[in-house]
């Protein structure tokens, strides 16, 4: 049972108190940071301050009022280099759009994702293999098959990319039948090659997160001890078995939950909220529902505004989500009708500028990047 980090951590937070966010601090500090690398983060509280300052989105409720200025953050601030802007990526049938370029995928696109270098996607298999489907990459030129991924229900494939950078991760399905995977594949789209194959430490390891340099995962409960995900339900615990693979070093080590949380926060391009008991909830793809012109995530209101008169398509428009980051100030939001509890894979694509909260409709009725 492999699930995105957002799903796991969102469900883990269900047992905690309702989210409460210091909107004043978020708004006042947002302008102080345009790039996550501007803040030299040490650890602990400094890491949390850095991610609050480096993610220029705003969480809060309608009663928050107008924020007052907050003091400057304690971490050192340096001038950043200009940020890389990711392309807009979506599909129409068998055509993949990567920025202003179009690519013939040769078959129906089931799911797709984005890196700093282009698009990665899964297509319907032409050889009728019931256990796996091909994974492709393109920067806007001729696509290249880069591996095979286990076939999933509802087109929900276990394909993952980082919030920034070039790494793509999926369970290797080049051998064996569905459920027999024994390792993750890591592909670097900037180098156009597989850079790691990570052996599972359990029978069915669960992917948790990937950043520019590391892959985080958790073994299934076949390994004795404490885990993040059971085969049927979530079992939060203080000290689960968590592992981090350093791609450059080619080394997998066990890591504590607190250390992983600190690294995710320091990495930026992730949403945070604090529960009333002080716990910090991390989510890289918060789910959204439309309330008027506002978008709401898990009962916490984001200051994102859709265009006047716009309505999310579909009969149950409740599982829209932040799909991916174009740059440190801009996110793509998918808006469409969901199937059950699965985020939409088809619908409208909105581009939202986080500092001012304004969203525009970039494309309508297309295949979306769905987390």
Structure explained in plain terms:
It is built from four helices and 25 strands. Mean pLDDT is 70; it is low at 1-82 and 229-234. It has 371 residues and is mostly beta strands. It has helices at residues 5-13, 23-30, 45-54, 257-267, and strands at 59-60, 89-92, 95-98, 101-104, 109-115, 118-123, 132-138, 144-150, 160-161, 167-171, 183-188, 193-199, 206-210, 214-218, 242-246, 251-255, 271-274, 280-283, 287-291, 294-297, 300-305, 320-327, 330-335, 346-353, 358-367. It folds into two domains: 12-83 and 278-367, no CATH class; 85-163 and 165-258, no CATH class. Strands 1-21-20-19-22-23-24-25 form an eight-stranded antiparallel beta sheet, with no helix packed on it. Helix content is 10%, strand content 37%. Strand 15 and strand 16 (251-255) form a beta hairpin. It starts with a helix and ends with a strand. The longest helix is centred in the C-terminal third of the chain and has 11 residues, at 257-267.
Describe the protein's topology.
Blueprint: H1 5-13, H2 23-30, H3 45-54, E1 59-60, E2 89-92, E3 95-98, E4 101-104, E5 109-115, E6 118-123, E7 132-138, E8 144-150, E9 160-161, E10 167-171, E11 183-188, E12 193-199, E13 206-210, E14 214-218, E15 242-246, E16 251-255, H4 257-267, E17 271-274, E18 280-283, E19 287-291, E20 294-297, E21 300-305, E22 320-327, E23 330-335, E24 346-353, E25 358-367
Antiparallel strand pairs: 1-21, 2-3, 3-4, 5-6, 6-7, 7-8, 9-10, 10-11, 11-12, 13-14, 14-15, 15-16, 17-18, 19-20, 19-22, 20-21, 22-23, 23-24, 24-25
Helix pairs in contact: 3-4
